[in-house]
Specification:
Elements: H1 4-13, H2 16-21, E1 27-29, E2 32-35, E3 47-50, E4 55-58, E5 64-65, H3 67-75, H4 79-89, H5 101-128, H6 133-145, H7 150-155, E6 159-160, H8 169-177, H9 181-186, E7 190-192, E8 198-200, E9 206-211, E10 217-224, E11 230-232, E12 260-264, H10 267-273, E13 280-284, H11 296-299, E14 303-308, H12 312-327, E15 332-336, H13 342-348, H14 351-361, H15 365-372, H16 378-391, H17 395-409, H18 413-422
Helix pairs in contact: 3-4, 10-13, 12-16, 15-16, 17-18
Length: 424
């Protein structure tokens, strides 16, 4: 294995514009370069290279990433072969290293976790169809109260967390299979009580497996089946990273890079919108904040549509997503829901009406914010817009957004620029 210092040196040395220029004819446009995308046929350049930030992005097919990603995709290499290709180009000596006992143990434990998670997912999936009183009630709740479309129950491999009199049905089943019980605690699937006894973490809940890009089950979102449904969101573990494993992108068998990604506030929104066959994938980060390191997961789409509900917490969350996506130069639109939540909106309208509403109300962030705060004064509106303006790195795009704002508010471009520049 190549040592970390070599990988770091390659990452710091490789220039994205130099690597890409060997395969693509690039032309400077502002602070970036543009050319014809090498990953799909096109006549009008939609392939952009940002030399300052060190990444490429095609707004036609959605491919994007750094120099290593470009080499991997262009030559169909794995990560370390791409490092070797770049090291050779930049005359960097490659230092190989053997894995330490600690690294080998970490990998062994991670593999054991993934194996256990897959078994648990099957155990819970089978439990949903046990045909006993509890599993039948759980299935009915999913279909009737939580409004899960029938076709999704099988596609999403939904399950039920069995309950026994001692509260340790999963613990007992895992023991019987010979798995390491301590892994259940590390995966937040089991807890210890005051008597140091192992108990299941969320028994009696409906379970939604979350998968990674390798189609491995890495976490479970658990639904408490009450009058007002409550989702217990998964916690970070050695195999699950909340900002990276978006529910709705990684786990659906039919999930592919489509025309766009619809990012919604909640799990229920995904389940209600996914069956409508919109022109894109529907995903949620639950209520975890979008981490800039993992933004390419979403920004790889030619367009991203933020479907915002009216809840104050959801509004704050989606505003954060918008700022991060703009920083990554994603093509973002915003749709404000006229109902409290998107799941409620879907219940009140036909699929065609939902689709038409989204199509007709998808706005730039400038228009969406002005619409949302239409009853406020210009200073309040500009205060809400300023973080988004500052997130846009490309000067031409930023000026275009600010000019749009000035026209909409009846201001001059100088008025908007001064306000933004004077804001902290």
């Amino acid at each position: 294995m190549i040592d970390n210092e070599t990988v770091r040196l390659v990452k710091e040395t490789a220039r994205i514009e130099e690597v890409v220029r060997e395969h693509v004819e690039l032309h400077r446009r502002g602070s970036s370069y543009v050319g014809l995308c090498p990953f799909h046929g096109e006549k009008t350049p939609s392939f952009h290279v940002n030399a300052v930030r060190g990444y490429f992005k095609c707004f036609g097919c959605g491919e994007g990433g750094d120099a290593i990603t470009f080499v991997r995709k262009f030559y169909h290499l794995d990560f370390y072969d791409a490092i070797r290709w770049l090291a050779n180009k930049y005359h960097i000596d490659i230092v190989e290293k053997e894995q330490t006992p600690e690294e080998l143990e970490e990998r062994r434990r991670r593999d054991a976790m993934l194996q256990l998670m897959q078994w648990v997912a099957e155990w819970m999936k089978d439990a949903l169809h046990d045909n006993d009183i509890r599993s039948t009630e759980a299935l009915a709740y999913l279909q009737n109260d939580f409004h899960v479309h029938e076709s999704l129950i099988e596609n999403l491999q939904l399950g039920y967390w069995r309950v026994n009199d001692t509260g340790d049905a999963l613990v007992q089943a895992v023991k019987a299979q010979g798995f390491d019980i301590e892994l259940l605690e590390l995966l937040h699937l089991a807890i210890r009580n005051e008597e140091n006894q192992w108990l299941d973490a969320n028994p009696g809940t409906a379970v939604f497996p979350v998968k990674n890009n390798g189609n491995n089950v890495v976490a479970f979102a658990c639904l408490k089946m009450e009058d007002k449904p409550q989702v217990v969101e998964p916690q970070r573990t050695a195999v699950y990273f909340p900002q990276k494993n978006l529910y709705g992108l990684n786990e659906l068998p039919m999930s592919r890079v489509k025309e766009c990604c619809y990012l919604v506030p909640s799990l229920e929104d995904v389940l209600m919108l996914q069956p409508l066959n919109l022109n894109g994938n529907v995903a949620t980060l639950f209520h975890h904040q979008l981490d800039e390191r993992y933004t390419p997961t979403v920004a790889k789409y030619p367009s991203v549509v933020l479907l915002c509900g009216s809840d104050a917490e959801d509004q704050k969350l989606m505003a954060h997503h918008l700022e991060v996506l703009l920083r990554f130069e994603a093509n973002v639109k915003v749709v404000n829901c006229k109902s409290a939540t998107w799941s409620q909106f879907v219940l009140e309208h036909t699929a065609d009406e939902v689709f038409a509403y989204i199509e007709n109300n998808a706005l730039s962030f400038v228009d969406a914010v002005i619409q949302q705060y239409a009853m406020e004064d210009n200073d309040t509106i500009l205060t809400h817009l300023t973080p988004f303006f500052k997130a846009v790195a490309d000067a031409h795009r930023r000026c275009a957004y600010m000019n749009r704002c000035a026209k909409q508010l009846g201001l001059t471009m100088n008025d908007v620029s001064e306000f933004v520049n004077n804001s902290r």
